[in-house]
Amino acid sequence: MEPSDDPLQAAESADTPASPSANPVPPSPQVSEAEPVQGSPTESATPPEVEAVSEAEPAPAPENAATAPDPVIASTVTIPAQENSTDAGGEWDLLVEKIKAWIDSNALGSLWTQAQLPLRVIGGVILFVIVSTIYSGILGTINKVPLAPGLLELFGVIWLVNYASSNLVRSSDRKRVIDALGSTWNKIVGR
Fold first, then answer.
1. What is the pLDDT of residue 129?
2. How many whole angstroms from its chain centre is CA 50?
3. Within a domain: 172
4. Backbone torsions φ then ψ of 52, nearest 5 degrees
């Protein structure tokens, strides 16, 4: 005897012998095609080459309802090939033609002029992330070397004192340094 999905039927079948008269089986549902819902003409119209064919036929009542075929799975849809097509290409050729037409229409040049600034900003951000990652890795490696951070700080202080004594003591030297910084800033800004 096969197990049943219905617990009441399973309990009943355990108490009674397995005979067709002891377990009544409900009749299988009849499959019928539903009428299409009336909507707008564009929604309800189907292309002529698509046909829905239902192969579900009423089957004799099986002994167990769990083994009955599913009417949804039993239906198939067939789409016949286009017979009047003279083209040798398909969707790929259509896509290639559309891309070639788009490139030939000079839309690519206008797209480049519109996207130049955002692409430069994105490129600058990516470059900044890469450089800062490399720089932090180098600094992390130097920091792990004993005595290196202290020695680098000492060299930095010595260089700063030497630069200040040679370039910032006299007013003419200070003016020269300030003018050099101003011209460098104007080159960066573009003035």
1. 98
2. 31
3. yes
4. -100, 125
Q: What is the total count of domains within the chain? A: 1
Contacting residues for 16 by C-beta, under 8 A, at least 6 apart: 22, 23
Whole-model pTM: value is 0.35
List the structure tokens of 117.
């600034």
Note whether residue 170 is domain-resident. yes
Query: Which token pair is 49?
Result: 């080459």
Indicate whether 105 pLDDT > 70. Answer: yes
The residue assigned the tokens 């004192």 is 161
Could you give the C-alpha distances from 104 to 79, 90, 96, in angstroms and in order? 36, 21, 12
Residue 171 pLDDT level (bands cut at 50, 70, 90): very high
Render pLDDT for 87-99 as a digit per residue (tens, 0 to 9). Answer: 566 788 889 988 8
Asked if residue 167 is part of any domain, the answer here is yes
Domain span at 152: 147-191
